[in-house]
Structure formats: C-alpha cells, structure tokens
Specification:
Elements (H helix, E strand, L loop, with lengths): L8 E5 L4 H12 L3 E6 L2 H15 L3 E5 L5 H10 L5 E4 L14 H29 L2 E6 L12 H21 L4 E8 L5 H14 L3 H11 L8 H12 L10 E4 L9
Parallel strand pairs: 1-2, 1-4, 2-3, 4-5, 5-6, 6-7
Helix pairs in contact: 1-2, 1-8, 4-5
Length: about 260
C-alpha cells in the first residue's frame, strides 16, 4: 500500500532506537524526510547514516533532550514546518509510590505529558494552515491497564491522552489528525530496563521474569518494534484522515476488555 507520504517531512523524537527508530524507518521507506531527536550523539549519528543509506531520504540528526526547552528548540529549528510529528520519550522506571517525590512526578510530567504538548503547540497551527498534519504519540498500555508500580507513567501518560482527546476534535476538519499508540510488551531496550528494575524489586532472575511476561501475553510473545512502527506509519498516511483522537492498543490482545 502506498501511504501517500512521499515528499513529506517528519520530526521523530527518540528516533535513534526502539519504537522511535522503527517509526522513523517505516516513514523513511515511504519517502519521508526525517529529523530525528535523541540524547546520545553517537547512536543518533549511526541511526541517521543507516537510514539514509537504506532508504535514500534526507535525515537530520539533532542531539538534545526533548524534556528541555533547548532540546525542543533545536529540533524545531532543524524542521520548523513538519508535516508529521512523532512524540516519544522514555518512561519512568517502576517503583513504590510511597517513595516518589514531587521532583519524580514533575520529571514524569515533563517527559510524558508536557513535552509532547509543547511540541504540538509549536507545530499544530502550521499543519492546519497547510491543510495536512499527522501527530502520533507513542504512549503505553498503562493508560488502559494501570499497574501500581507504573504509577508515574499511569498518571502522566493519562494526562497526555486526556489532552489529546480534546485537541484532536478541533484539528481534524483542517486535515490534521492526532492519535496515540499504546504498545504492550515490546522487545526493546526500554522493556529490558523495565525488567531489570523488576529484578531489583522482586529478587527474581531476569530470564524468569522476561520469559513469564512473554508467555502471559495472549500472542505468546513480545511484540516487535517494527510492528509499532508500521501502525504509526499507517496512522500518518493519507488513508487515515478519518481516524483522530484515538488510543490504539498494539499489545497482542493483553488488554482484557471489550472496549
């Protein structure tokens, strides 16, 4: 399927690895010029070089932290008028809410709610003026299946989803859709770090926890980053203009509800 995106431009946050990298690659395969933001310069440059070589598109790497004004300003300076915005940031580690401080909560809000909103604020009016825009937020199944140890993510990401629910209904008539993708367990570095933290909390082995989590999923496995990337690419396509304000689970069927 031709997604109708050739010649478009995209900002992909966290585009050097994991699900952000997968989304960048899927968009590049459709002829989208990329600006990818990440904190690690070496990994970022390697990703940009690889994507250019494989897909033949322009890729501009920007080293910065999306949770800071400087990081957001840098990526917007490199791509001031994107057609596509992929919001994506590392989540917070699991823990006990009794020991989380105000600073922990503010850090969670900055990463998972306020920074995505700031980038939407900076780009959505331009998208509407040009008559086309796609914004996809990589969120988490935690907004549908809250786990106590993931309270920082439950709260901050739910705030983002709630905000999007209102904004998305105001932009779609101008050709701009805003949606959230809710990944379940996906075999990425972030998932491995999550399990490492569970090892610390429970004393169980990494291998046991990792295998158990995969076996408990109805699909009997972890998802692949490419599966998340493909979902994001479709939501960015010309075929998805009637989909907005949605939170789409990509979790192997692990969410137990009907709706």
């Amino acid at each position: 399927m031709d997604l109708g995106l050739k010649g478009r431009s995209a900002i992909v946050c966290g585009g050097s690895r994991g699900m952000g990298r997968a989304a960048a690659e899927m968009l590049a395969a459709e002829g989208v010029a990329l600006t990818i933001l990440a904190r690690n310069q070496e990994r970022l440059d390697a990703a940009a070089t690889d994507i250019r070589a494989r897909f033949g598109v322009a890729v501009t790497p920007v080293a910065g932290d999306v949770t800071t004004e400087a990081g957001r300003a840098a990526v917007l300076a490199a791509c001031p008028h994107p057609d596509i915005l992929i919001n994506n940031a590392d989540g917070m580690p699991p823990g006990d809410f009794r020991v989380w401080t105000r600073d922990d909560w503010i850090a969670a809000l900055d990463a998972m709610m306020l920074s995505p909103i700031a980038l939407m604020k900076a780009t959505v009016d331009g998208m509407m003026a040009r008559g086309f825009g796609r914004i996809v937020n990589i969120v988490s199944r935690s907004v549908k299946i809250p786990q106590l140890e993931m309270g920082l993510s439950n709260g901050a990401r739910s705030g983002l989803v709630g905000f999007v629910a209102g904004l998305a209904r105001q932009t779609v008539a101008k050709g701009v859709t805003i949606n959230n993708v809710l990944p379940g367990i996906v075999a990425t570095d972030a998932q491995r770090h999550h399990v490492e933290k569970l090892v610390e909390m429970t004393g169980r082995s990494f291998g046991d926890i990792w295998a158990e989590r995969g076996a408990q999923n109805p699909a009997g496995r972890y998802g692949e980053a490419s599966e998340i990337g493909a979902t994001i690419a479709f939501l960015c396509s010309v075929h998805a203009g009637f989909i907005t304000g949605q939170s789409i689970l990509v979790d192997g069927g692990q969410y137990p509800g009907t709706y």
